[in-house]
Amino acid sequence: MAMPSLELDSRYEEKPKLLLLQPINGPFKTALSQKFELVKADESPLPLPTFLSTHCLQIKALFILAPTVTVDSSLLDQLPSLGLVAAISAGVDHIHLDACRKRGVVVTNAGETFTPDVADFAVGLLVDVLRKVTMADRFVKNGLWMGKGDLPLGSRVSGKRVGIVGLGSIGSHVAKRLMAFGCPISYFSRAPKPNFPSYRYFSSVLDLACENDVLVLSCALTAETHNIINRDVMVALGKDGIIINVGRGALIDEPELVRCLKEGVIGGAGLDVFVNEPDVPKELFQMENVVLSDHRAVTTPESFKGVSELVIANLDAFFSGKPLLSPVSS
Amino acid sequence: MDNVGVLVTHKPLPYLEQELVQRGCRIFRLWEVPESNRFEFIQKNSANIRAIIGNSRLGANAAMIDALPKLEIVTSFSVGLDKIDLVKCKERGIRVTNTPDVLTDDTADLAIGLAICVMRRILSAHKYVRSGAWKKAPYTLSTKFSGKRVGILGLGRIGLAIAKRAEAFNCPISYYSRSEKPYPNYTYYPTPADLATNCDVLVIACALTEKTRHIVDRTVIDALGPKGVLINVGRGSHVDEPELVAALVEGRLAGAGLDVYENEPHVPKELFGLKNVVHVPHVGSGTIETRTAMADLVLGNLEAHFLNKPLWTPIV
């Protein structure tokens, strides 16, 4: 008689455990649950440190759904077996990369999934601000076109000198789009990018601002880039200058931005991100030369689907010892 | 141009008015006259009017031309010629000029900008943030623009500029034109309905003629479909406006970005409450840079004519 096989039937293999600290619902939850056993700290009545010490000492992977949780040394110390932090976003300023690296924890992010949508949004914001689209739409709706009121003329997009702060995936896609609008492109980055010889490199944001009409912020938020847009930079950009921020709110000294807009130090802004979302400085609401949005540069079905597939693919790769698809280098 | 009488049909750019005055022109300000009295005003001053500066709303129609025996030149502050009776001008030997090229980029910039604003709901976002609603509820999804199929009605200067921009967003480009053009990367469709069937964003960028009036009719709107977006930077009369309004209100189109309307400045109020419609008041060339360049073309053409020099941008 043949001995029964002692190999585990793969149907009964335990799914790898995935820790979540934040609520999740919908098709993404379903997709994740099919492959991973979701360990939901947010659904436990236990205080988090107790939950972690009771249930998570063997946890190898943590999924961060939103920047409402900071992954710092203190959290990492409570997850001694952790090997991967999978973030859903492109920005990982809420994840302390050095602390992760020291503990041999790899971090993955959204990679290039969001790039086209964010780049499109940045261009949309710029055209809106320069051509006064939001203002014009309101002018029409308020019946002012019928009256004697005049809508102020906009300013040409074509030919505006555009300075990109951070020529990564998003920055280079913005550059490609605005070049087609006839905008000369220059950039600031930690080092010149040999792949983009036709774009002029500036080694300081101040110099970039001096020589441009528009600044597009598309870099990661780090200790070095925190408040990289300060008053000096805005003065250098000038009274007709426009700032478009699709990076992180804290790239700009926000109170100073409000002051500079109020005083006419710069000409206008298109802002998708803020220092303390969803709080937005109220002084911005009445400014006709400012367009605001609720961190929605990525909110298309394609981006959402793409990033959920990418997160799952990264987790699969991690648990099968294969190369990760979108690791973040610290 | 000393003492040359110029009939200006619309309120001009201050720069243009100043320059006309500086050159000694006598300006007849038609826009200041109530509509019902305008014909009388023209007749009263007909002995002195040798030039008309028209625009996209009022140029030089047959009645006006007939009432102006001294009219020599119509310089349009627009590239479109649909408000000028070109046949009559030719008959009378009246010169006609327009403002091509200088407004190509602005119009194309706006067309793409409108498409992104509509599809990504930028205006809704702005309103949402200002209302304080962001604290209470999460965002809704909008529609990706990159990679969508862009169909252009009319592949002239403006159509090509739109295509160039859309290509940078990885949008496959297709077009309808009177005849196929030598752009192998762009797919030609022999009818507007075929084009609409095969694109996600339909942009109107052709001239308004008898043949293109209502080129976007119910058939084309149906072909574009409930996921389709219409962008009009051409002329309002390119579109059967009541059909467009019905389609948007009933959800048979995904959205529209409109710069022009059949009866400007009237804009169908039924559209005002729709989040998927952006309406701007004919600002395709509405930048200080471009309007100044257009004014320079008008002035250059006028001066050239009255100095017996070759016109800068003649049509007739």
TrEMBL record, chain A:
Residues 61-328 form the D-isomer specific 2-hydroxyacid dehydrogenase catalytic domain. Residues 123-297 form the D-isomer specific 2-hydroxyacid dehydrogenase NAD-binding domain. The keyword Oxidoreductase applies. Pfam families: 2-Hacid_dh (PF00389), 2-Hacid_dh_C (PF02826). GO terms for cellular component: cytosol. CDD domains: HPPR. It comes from the Eukaryota. Keywords: NAD, NADP, Oxidoreductase, Pyruvate. GO terms for molecular function: glyoxylate reductase (NADPH) activity; hydroxypyruvate reductase [NAD(P)H] activity; NAD binding. Belongs to the D-isomer specific 2-hydroxyacid dehydrogenase family. This is Glyoxylate/hydroxypyruvate reductase HPR3-like protein. The lineage of its organism: Eukaryota, Viridiplantae, Streptophyta, Embryophyta, Tracheophyta.
TrEMBL record, chain B:
GO terms for molecular function: glyoxylate reductase (NADPH) activity; hydroxypyruvate reductase [NAD(P)H] activity; NAD binding. It holds the Pfam family 2-Hacid_dh_C. Residues 113-284 form the D-isomer specific 2-hydroxyacid dehydrogenase NAD-binding domain. One of its GO terms (cellular component) is cytosol. InterPro entries: D-isomer_2-hydroxyacid_DH (IPR050223), D-isomer_2_OHA_DH_cat_dom (IPR006139), D-isomer_DH_CS1 (IPR029752), D-isomer_DH_NAD-bd (IPR006140), NAD(P)-bd_dom_sf (IPR036291). Keywords: NAD, NADP, Oxidoreductase, Pyruvate. Residues 18-311 form the D-isomer specific 2-hydroxyacid dehydrogenase catalytic domain. It comes from the Eukaryota. The keyword DNA-binding does not apply. Belongs to the D-isomer specific 2-hydroxyacid dehydrogenase family. This is Hydroxyphenylpyruvate reductase-like protein. It comes from Carex littledalei.
